[in-house]
Amino acid sequence: MGENMLYTKCIKIIILTGLLSVSVLLSACGTSATNSSSEPIAMQSKTIAASDMHSMLIDHDNNLFAWGGNWSGRLGDGTTTDRYYLVHIMDDVASVSIQGDHSMAIRTDGSLWAWGCGRLGNGATESDSPVKIMDDVASVSAGTYHTMAIKSDGSLWAWGGNSYGQLGNGTNAEQHDPIQIWEDIVAISAGGWHTMAIREDGSLWAWGCSRNGQLGDGKGGSPDANSLIPIQMGTDTDWAYVVADSWRTFAIKTDDSLWAWGDNRRGQLGDGTTISRSYPVRIGADASWISVSTDVARTVAIQSDGSLWAWGRSWTARPGDGTPTYWLFPIRIGTGTDWVSTATGFGYTVAVKDDGSIWVSGGNHQLRFGPYDRDASVLTQIAGTEDEHWVSVVAGDNRVFAITKDGRIRRLGI
Q1: Domain around 34
Q2: Alpha carbon distance 270, 151 (integer Å)
Q3: pLDDT in tens, 31-43
Q4: How far apart, in whole angstroms, are the C-alpha atoms of residue 172 and residue 209?
Q5: 1 lies in some domain
Q6: I want to staple 74 with a disulfide (CB 3.0 to 4.6 A). Which of 116, 153, 269, 408 is the partner?
Q7: What is the distance between the alpha carbons of residues 182 and 159, in angstroms, rounded to a whole number?
Q8: Is residue 129 packed enough to be buried (19+ CB in 10 Å), middle (13-18) or exposed (0-12)?
């Protein structure tokens, strides 16, 4: 549910879940996470990341903890044992990016570390404990089968699977060690089989698979749709943020307009059709989008006035307004202007209001949210404000984590 970065102009948080990892960066947080669905674990947390089977957090002292499924050592604790509680992995960690079977972390000294299963970047394909990959790394994005990293000098490095040219080095050969791809890069997002980047001049570039038009160069679905090298998306130089999903891409420009392209069979793009787009299309006429959350079937977003919007569909639930169909364009959910955070998981949506209350809609068969045991076709409150003030949520396939104003984390799903 792919990477997550922070667009600091308006504190834009774009959260991708499911197959892509989720990363929420908090500037000032306080305590905790949980080993059950109701009791918090005391901890100073400032970063939390969730992939489809495992999760990680960095506490306020830069310690990295992990929990969840541990196939092929993806947790990095030196074992392959699933963990239902937090285990300490390493200290002095500045950021983490997780995707599927592997995990990447940057330490405070700029060194990059990897573990799990896949092309880790050290010539090996599997490790159940962190191994050092390279130094002087500013950011990293873990894709489904490949990894991209930006060094502090703006140079771009890549390794891993390359069957669709997602590394951008002009070949289809996989790489077991980092190779330099480019320079002057300020943002990078590794998707399932494609990669998106923004250069220092604000231009947007793409490479890899474009079976569903996710590159955005107008060639999606054609025999020559894939690109083994970076290609520029148009001539605009005002791109501020980009995130690559497995089959689609979302981006926000400096004027706060939202753009999307790629797979659209369920209306996930929000352009009023179910036609997949091979070029960027603007989503709505508004230029006030501050966050967007998407999974394989639907998208939920918040505008700067605090209004909540949704489009697309899920297998078990409506977008959130209770109607019996899916929506091909953004529709406003209610009349509230107090929404502050949203996340989507496997068949459900979670949202937080500025009073700290948590609301959900969608399938409840996996998550067993709060006080009800049924699916909710409208947003239903599951947590109040008496004891906690919730400010953000992170959703994976089968679980949700909520973050309080003082930084405490509570697990809401099973």
Answers
A1: 6-411
A2: 35
A3: 222 233 333 333 4
A4: 11
A5: no
A6: 116
A7: 13
A8: middle
